[in-house]
């Protein structure tokens, strides 16, 4: 596999926090990907909400299927740009490992509950999962991933948390949030692939749910353009065939746009190594026109789908479940699994325990502890 000079080369990795002998048949980034796929946290993603709760339908995206779509898009773009596909895949598969049950509603609840105990950020929690919470190896906590994968997992981080991480790991994965540098190009690519994936699949899931209609997308120029392309070539297309083909075309155009815009940006700055690329402004990007079109689509989805009354009702119920679970575990930590119940940092232990839950386990635990069914 050809790699550009500005790609993350596995032989130049900054290594693992706990040194390990190299694998005989896999690069460090391939090894990271394999560890992620075999982790408990990765399997839990199949029952964690993307937009619609798992019990609302079998075909809606979950955090797992979303992560697979991000990995597919990321690898396709990385191959065209000469970036490291294995690193992109590892970051994509791990980027949501710290997400709570019930999607962003869960993060909001845990951040409120942890306000006086350090707060809660799902990107930071993803790093915490791969660094600490996974229990698979006798010699160390976590998965002991390479620096470059961990750097990509920590997509966002507040300054306060970055300073705490920097104190624990000087010149580590949080340093860029303090000195204004960028992550690897592979990490930048995963951030954009994440956006492309969720914009596209939320159109699909929104229409499938019946909460938005194809006609409502008349106010979204990006989608209308490709729907009309499909109808010009296939005038008979209707329903799901029309929807899927329009989404397919939209995805392809966004991928091509990222490739072209990023190549132009790289040509402007001409980084000769991965570290030099980190010192440049962000290089992986949309063209300004596609950025505006994508932003318009996001605004539409936020207004018509994410804030739909039915979604708001479900979100309110989910928040109630997690608020009451948090209070119950703080009052009776012995109700948690032993490894969490016996920890000294009680509130953080409760946050770790709840954030690792699937939607359905959280619902069962809430019913067990309160005797009430919310959903």
Automatic annotation (TrEMBL):
Q: Which CDD domains match?
A: HDc
User: What molecular functions are annotated in GO for this chain?
Assistant: dGTPase activity
Q: Which GO terms describe its biological process?
A: dGTP catabolic process
The protein here is known as Deoxyguanosinetriphosphate triphosphohydrolase-like protein
Q: Which stretches of sequence are listed as region Disordered?
A: 1-32
NCBIfam families linked: dGTP_triPase, PRK01286.1-1
Its domain of life? Bacteria
The record ties this protein, via HAMAP family, to:
dGTPase_type2
**Alphabetical list of PROSITE patterns matching this protein:** HD (PS51831)
Keywords (alphabetical) are: Hydrolase
Name all HD domain ranges.
63-199
Q: Which family does it belong to?
A: Belongs to the dGTPase family. Type 2 subfamily.
Taxonomic lineage of this organism? Bacteria, Pseudomonadati, Pseudomonadota, Betaproteobacteria, Burkholderiales
